[in-house]
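Summary of Year 1 activities. Much of the first year was spent building the evaluation harness for sequence design. The harness presents a backbone, in tokenized form, and records the residue chosen at every position. We chose the following record to illustrate the format because it has been used consistently in internal testing since the harness was completed.
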């Protein structure tokens, strides 16, 4: 067994909360104190670099990717800590966009674990240990700035031991209800737990109740807070399928007087919701004005255009002319599925669509199904094989077969304003979102098939889809990652 395999074995012997559904957030109470004590043992590495801390239900991964790319365009040495990984845990700890090497990772694991008392080491979870590894490695690599993505929630998440210079709350919607609570306000309170005294906060949250939670938590911490459509703004191109937009930050507050404007920004990542995420990244970068000079406009443009992230409406064009385009996405809650459908229907209008769909246990299956209803000609229900959390395909088929009237409706629509809609953060006065319309193939429900193997589901889908059709894979990051690997290796 190589040292890297031994390091992975040591790590995987930890309790992995990412694989569990039964734990509650309060189970983590008091654990941050232990982590802070361990950081002091390693010379307080979290104080050696500037940090942007990013929380949110959706969009935080994209915000991190945009920030990383902008910092690279500026010539800064940047460390990025994200989760989960697609294929190797080393992907979670990156320097200048490159995953930690197997050799460095093994050395890091044994170096860090060797300095921790065995009794204490035994208590650390998988994510806690990886978080320690990341912070120590970033200090060793002498980075200029770290971009840290919250794992789950915020208040009790292991990453909350960082020392942020800017805090980002990307979005808040229903997810991880067992751990974070059944109401948006309780979810928001958990995520706002990363807000620190006097540290500026930037957010794209628009839902009035949720926004009030963010404001309240920021006020308690005496932290200035900047919202999309209040302190910074976007003006999107009205051209179909365009990801071009202009950005303006206009805040005349004593803490941060600034009027900063950029136009002609192009994104490579598709979807109008990515414009919101890119705007958050720009605003977060500007809030580091006390530590770094204002970014060059061209660096911002280049950084945002170069940013890419796998499984975020990732379009895979076939190598064979008789095969359809495949779109891979890790959407795993109602709002992200809605964003995915909106993006795909805008990008590929009037095309027959097929769906390979699988989810994780504990997710809002009914809510996701309600968003998918009517858009697909044929649906293949399946399950991934790379985690024990997979929802059985046979169970999915039973849920899909329910009478549509039994599917829960979206309460957010009741008021006439859908705050969960993926593009709602773009000012309606300057962005007229394309309204989605279901495919409605002769008003018949989609054909349903279930496969216990996701590879078999995709293979069968590709056999019956034509070159002009679109094949979508979504519902779970695990599912999309497994099928992405299969497609790449073909």
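For this record, the design step produced the sequence shown next.
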């Amino acid at each position: 067994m190589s040292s890297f395999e031994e390091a992975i074995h040591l790590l995987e012997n930890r309790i992995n909360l990412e694989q569990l559904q039964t734990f509650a957030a309060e189970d983590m109470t008091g654990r941050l104190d232990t982590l802070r004590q361990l950081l002091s043992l390693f010379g307080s590495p979290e104080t050696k670099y500037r940090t942007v801390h990013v929380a949110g239900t959706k969009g935080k991964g994209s915000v991190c990717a945009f920030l990383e790319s902008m910092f690279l365009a500026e010539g800064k040495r940047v460390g990025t800590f994200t989760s989960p990984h697609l294929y190797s845990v080393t992907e979670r700890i990156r320097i200048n966009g490159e995953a930690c090497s197997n050799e460095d990772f093994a050395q890091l694991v044994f170096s860090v674990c060797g300095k921790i008392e065995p009794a204490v080491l035994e208590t650390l979870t998988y994510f806690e240990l990886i978080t320690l590894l990341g912070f120590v490695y970033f200090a060793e690599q002498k980075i200029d700035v770290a971009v840290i993505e919250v794992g789950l929630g915020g208040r009790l998440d292991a990453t909350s031991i960082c020392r942020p210079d800017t805090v980002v709350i990307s979005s808040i919607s229903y997810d991880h209800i067992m751990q974070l609570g059944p109401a948006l306000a309780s979810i928001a309170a958990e995520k706002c737990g990363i807000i620190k005294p006097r540290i500026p906060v930037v957010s794209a949250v628009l839902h009035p109740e949720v926004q009030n939670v963010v404001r309240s938590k920021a006020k308690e911490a005496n932290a200035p807070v900047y919202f999309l459509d209040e302190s910074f703004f976007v003006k999107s191109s009205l051209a179909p399928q365009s990801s071009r937009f202009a950005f303006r930050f206009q805040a005349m507050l004593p803490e941060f007087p600034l009027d900063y404007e950029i136009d002609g920004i192009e994104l490579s990542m598709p979807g109008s919701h990515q414009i919101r995420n890119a705007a958050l990244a720009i605003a977060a970068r500007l809030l580091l004005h006390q530590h770094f000079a204002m970014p060059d406009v061209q660096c911002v443009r280049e950084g945002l255009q170069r940013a890419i992230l796998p499984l975020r409406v990732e379009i895979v064009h076939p190598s064979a002319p008789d095969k359809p385009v495949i779109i891979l996405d890790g959407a795993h809650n109602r709002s992200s599925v809605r964003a995915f459908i909106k993006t795909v229907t805008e990008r590929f209008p009037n095309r027959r669509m097929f769906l390979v769909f699988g989810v994780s246990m504990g997710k809002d299956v009914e809510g996701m199904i309600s968003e998918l209803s009517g858009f697909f000609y044929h649906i293949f229900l399946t399950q991934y094989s790379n985690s024990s959390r997979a929802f059985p395909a046979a169970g999915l088929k039973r849920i899909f077969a329910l009478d549509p009237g039994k599917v829960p409706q979206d309460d957010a629509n009741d008021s006439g304003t859908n705050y969960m809609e993926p593009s709602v953060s773009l000012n309606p006065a300057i962005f007229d979102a394309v309204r989605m319309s279901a495919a409605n193939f002769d008003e018949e429900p989609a054909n349903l098939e279930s496969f216990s193997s996701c590879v078999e589901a995709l293979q069968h889908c590709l056999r019956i889809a034509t070159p002009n059709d679109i094949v979508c894979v979504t519902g779970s990051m695990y599912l999309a990652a497994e099928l992405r690997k299969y497609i790449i290796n073909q």
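Residues 403-445 have pLDDT under 50 and may be disordered. Quantitative recovery figures across the full test set are reported in Table 2.
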